[in-house]
User: Which sequence fits this backbone?
């Protein structure tokens, strides 16, 4: 992305965080959420092959068209196959967001008890949130580029939608069973905390992100 179109990461965080305080709770419905039934794959087979291959190139090439083209070649497709992605590199960013969100179900397991006590919902939310932030580590040096793309007007709505989905996923996996207005406020609060922490993480130089 040309330097003239870059947006400071602090501004990106402010936009994403401040918008998330309002948008998700208004637009998101309290939908039925269950893993008792097989979930459909998030992307069609051909797109999955290309995006997963392209994702492997992100650490070196960033969230770019070059990464998409290299992914298409690795998956056995022509460069023109990137036309499958009308939103361009945002689709590659969205692939990271969606797959890492869905991975939480299997990557974070909670013991029945810890130190003789049952783990509370709040502790589970914290563990899941930290696990999701850690999942950014392999591409963290490229994440400010991704945030700049997500901050473009066209991509703000789908970015906020996925942020709301992440907050919902974390509370669901933590065992939250609220059915009152707190269902919305909990998710709006977590969305704000997550987005601001995510931006801070891109600038954190402390060892192991302490």
Assistant:
């Amino acid at each position: 992305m040309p330097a003239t179109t870059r947006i400071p990461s602090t501004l990106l965080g402010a936009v994403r965080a401040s918008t998330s305080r309002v948008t998700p709770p208004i637009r998101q419905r309290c939908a039925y959420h269950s893993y008792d039934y097989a979930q459909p794959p998030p992307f069609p087979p051909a797109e999955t092959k290309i995006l997963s291959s392209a994702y492997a190139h992100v650490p070196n090439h960033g969230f770019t068209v070059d990464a998409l083209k290299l992914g298409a070649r690795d998956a056995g497709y022509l460069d023109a196959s990137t036309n499958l992605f009308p939103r361009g590199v945002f689709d590659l960013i969205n692939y990271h967001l969606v797959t890492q969100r869905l991975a939480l179900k299997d990557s974070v397991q909670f013991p029945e008890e810890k130190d003789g006590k049952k783990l509370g919902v709040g502790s589970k939310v914290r563990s899941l949130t930290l696990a999701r932030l850690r999942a950014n580590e392999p591409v963290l040096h490229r994440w400010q580029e991704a945030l700049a793309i997500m901050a473009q007007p066209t991509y703000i709505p789908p970015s906020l939608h996925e942020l709301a989905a992440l907050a919902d996923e974390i509370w669901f996996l933590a065992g939250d069973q609220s059915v009152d207005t707190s269902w919305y406020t909990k998710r709006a609060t977590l969305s704000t905390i997550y987005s601001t922490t995510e931006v801070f993480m891109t600038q954190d130089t402390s060892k192991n992100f302490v």
Q: What stands out?
A: Residues 1-12, 17-32 have pLDDT under 50 and may be disordered. The two ends are 31 Å apart (CA to CA). The CA atoms of residues 122 and 210 lie 20 Å apart. The longest helix spans residues 182-201.
